[in-house]
Each structure stands twice: as structure tokens, then as C-alpha cells.
Automatic annotation (TrEMBL):
<keyword id="KW-0472">Membrane</keyword>
<keyword id="KW-0812">Transmembrane</keyword>
<dbReference type="InterPro" id="IPR001129">
    <property type="entry name" value="Membr-assoc_MAPEG"/>
</dbReference>
<protein>
    <recommendedName>
        <fullName>MAPEG family protein</fullName>
    </recommendedName>
</protein>
<keyword id="KW-1133">Transmembrane helix</keyword>
<dbReference type="Pfam" id="PF01124">
    <property type="entry name" value="MAPEG"/>
</dbReference>
<feature type="transmembrane region" description="Helical">
    <location>
        <begin position="109"/>
        <end position="127"/>
    </location>
</feature>
<feature type="transmembrane region" description="Helical">
    <location>
        <begin position="84"/>
        <end position="102"/>
    </location>
</feature>
<dbReference type="InterPro" id="IPR023352">
    <property type="entry name" value="MAPEG-like_dom_sf"/>
</dbReference>
Length: 128
């Protein structure tokens, strides 16, 4: 299995790290698991932003997964290039979450655009 495929798995799991921060920071998550969506809507500050980072991570995931799969199937770009772009995307998503939780709005937007650039690069790199 390629590094790019492993990056898809990491991208699938990453939103749950943000959810964990949102739910369990302060120790309230376990007893609020009966209505987790209602509970997450009541959060504020860094915990609320972690929840939003989780939502955005799920929203961008299909595009990234499709880009990796298409790049792999097309085989018009070297595997090392596909792997490098996929890894850059995953790292950008980790940094995106950190920026979101820390409330660094401008940095978060820049990192988001970089991640989208990675997705576009996977498509463009396979347009051979």
C-alpha cells in the first residue's frame, strides 16, 4: 500500500482527534454522550473551534480521497510525487486544526488554501 493511501486513512481518522479535544477537554465528554451533537453545540472557545475543525475535516475528506485514488489510478505522476502531495495535505490538516483551535484565523485560512492546493495538484498532476 502506498504512502498516499495511508494518508487517506490518517485523514479519515484526524477529525476524531479534533472531536476528542472538543468532547473531553475538561472531562465532560463521557457523561454527555447521550446527545453528543447537542452537547457539541453548547461548547465555546477552543472546544467549539475544535468541533468546527472536525466538521471541516469531514467536509474536505471526500475531495482528498478522490484525488488520491484518481492520481493512483491514472499513474501519470511519479508515485513519490503523489505520496509527497498527500503527506503535505495531511500535515496541512493537522496544522489547520491547530490554527483553528488556537483561533489564528488568518493562518488557518492560508493553511486551508494550501490543503486545497494539494488536492488540486493531485488532479492536475494526473492530467497527462
Amino acid at each position: 500500500m502506498t504512502l498516499a493511501f495511508w494518508c487517506v486513512l490518517v485523514a479519515i481518522l484526524l477529525p476524531f482527534a479534533f472531536t476528542g479535544f472538543a468532547k473531553f477537554q475538561g472531562g465532560f465528554g463521557l457523561r454527555e454522550n447521550h446527545n453528543p451533537r447537542d452537547f457539541l453545540d453548547t461548547l465555546s472557545g477552543a472546544r467549539k473551534r475544535a468541533h468546527w475543525a472536525q466538521q471541516n475535516s469531514f467536509e474536505i475528506l471526500p475531495g482528498f480521497a478522490a484525488a488520491v485514488i484518481i492520481a493512483q489510478l491514472a499513474q501519470t505522476a511519479p508515485q513519490g510525487t503523489i505520496d509527497g502531495i498527500a503527506l503535505a495535505f495531511v500535515l496541512s490538516r493537522v496544522l489547520y486544526g491547530v490554527c483553528y483551535i488556537a483561533d489564528w484565523a488568518s493562518a488557518r485560512s492560508l493553511v486551508w488554501f494550501f490543503g486545497m492546493g494539494c488536492i488540486i495538484a493531485l488532479f492536475v498532476g494526473t492530467a497527462g
